[in-house]
Amino acid sequence: MTGSILIADNVPTNRIILKVKLSSAFYEVTQATSGAEALARARSERPNLVLLDIDLGDMTGYAACAALKADPLTAHIAVAIITPPRDQEAKIAALKAGADEVLGKPLDAPTLSARVRALMRASATSGELRRRGETVRALGFAEAPATFGRPGRITLVGSTAEEAMGWRVGLRGMIHDEIVIERREKVLRAVHDGAHSDLYVISTRPGTGEGLRLISDLRAREATRHAGIIVVHGQQERREALMALDLGANDLITRGADPEEMALRLRTQMRRKRDADLLRQILDEGLRLVSIDSLTRLYNRRYALAHLEKIAEEARTGGRHFALMLIDIDRFKSVNDTFGHAVGDAVLAEVGQRLRDSLRGMDLVARFGGEEFLVCMPMTSLTEARAAAERLRVTICDRPMTIAPDGTPVTVSVSIGLAMGGGPDRSAIPDLLAVADQALYSAKAEGRNQVTLGSHAA
Ligand code: GH3
Ligand code: MG
Asked: Which pLDDT score is estimated for 137?
């Protein structure tokens, strides 16, 4: 994965050394020689990651970080602050300024590249979500749902019960999310039972690989795929810790670190998790709105066409047949003319409802055009398809709809064009639709309120 990194440091040699270390991994690297330049470049270049020294000449790295995080244009960019060796105060100050990561000097190459990879991955995910969210919003489909006030949930997994208890005591008063302690071997069972958390703090046990396995397991489960994972490791387990980052951990803490550091890192990860959850929610809502017809609550044409391709593909690989029907209301124009457009709308909704009620869950029902519906039934033989089409025809015309304001019953019928796909027939979806359409035309010509099976032109 490539990505862009902005390095800000007022000492030229520091910049050069970092640039050399990072360029070998094919990142695109740009430089800023002051805090002001870093802020300006971050706004104009929108890099994936900004690396800030704590001394930028005109301001501290903390101030620059806080400014980046306060600006909506740059708030989503990952920021790492580079601190002097073993400087706990600097580390806390960096985390308080909102840094996503703190890198203590000296920066050895493996640590730097593992950390940068993890930050890049986080930035790529949030960047992609952000882009899609912006598209959905630009289409005018969804307003951001109100930020939910529910507290988050954090699971602590110590290598011993005492370790996790110690963390909980240390975090008291600094974290307002729900905190639960879980034994390592119980974590996945709890997830399976529906009790999953936003964040997991996991202690690695030297030489066992158990912490690492749990990270992979959590990443593989739907419910915890997007959870934040923070790994607590011993001073000596550096290699294991870096591997944890590559397996998908979001952050690392050295065992015995200041509880305030843990609290700050948890807060950063919780913020990241919630931003991403919110964006995903907007996307889901946007997707629903672009694929559902608002009058009938059925899928729309755009969704149906995409879905048909999937059904055809599955039928090809599985060697099964599927049925395709185009269903058109007969003389619908006269419904509008007699009862008005609003009643026409209600008839459309009722027809959609009746079709849906007479089909299986796996069948697709969509509003394909004005008063035309599409039904696709996977894994269906010709005999079954004929019977289903006949059932659909009858369910529409056998009882009137009482929707006119004066109570006048409205009865409508439909004509159905049926085409079969799959099996030895390799016809593409547009060809099958043309066959169904031709059959529908014949059904209309022969008097309406009937099902006609289409045949491929020889
Ligand atoms: P046929 O039996 O040949 O299908 O006759 P028809 O009257 O149903 O067909 P035609 O294509 O002549 O007219 C379809 C009518 O459907 C015209 C259009 O105004 C109406 N229509 C299309 N979409 C809607 C809608 O969303 N609401 C309402 N109320 N009417 C619609
Ligand atoms: Mg019609």
From this structure: 64
Q: Phi and psi (nearest 5°) for 49?
A: -145, 140
445 lies in the same domain as 334: yes
Residues in contact with ligand 1 (CB, 6 Å cut-off): 328-333, 336, 341, 344-345, 348, 370-371, 444, 448
pTM of the model: 0.66
391 has pLDDT over 50: yes
Residue 141 has pLDDT above 60, yes or no: no
| Percent of the residues in the chain that have a pLDDT greater than 70, as a whole number | 95
Q: Residue 448 CA: which ligand 1 atom is closest?
A: 2
241, 363: one domain: no
* Domain contains 271: yes
CA distance 64 to 81: 10
Same domain, 269 and 321: no
* Domain boundaries, position 337: 301-453
CA distances from 445 to 418, 420, 455, 458 (A): 15, 21, 16, 21
State the residue for tokens 């489960």. Answer: 221
Between 334 and 86, residue with greater pLDDT: 334
Within-domain flag for 94: yes
Enter the DSSP assignment of 79.
E
User: Hey, which of 294, 300, 332 would you mutate to test ligand 1's pocket, going by the most ligand atoms within 8 Å of its Cβ?
Assistant: 332
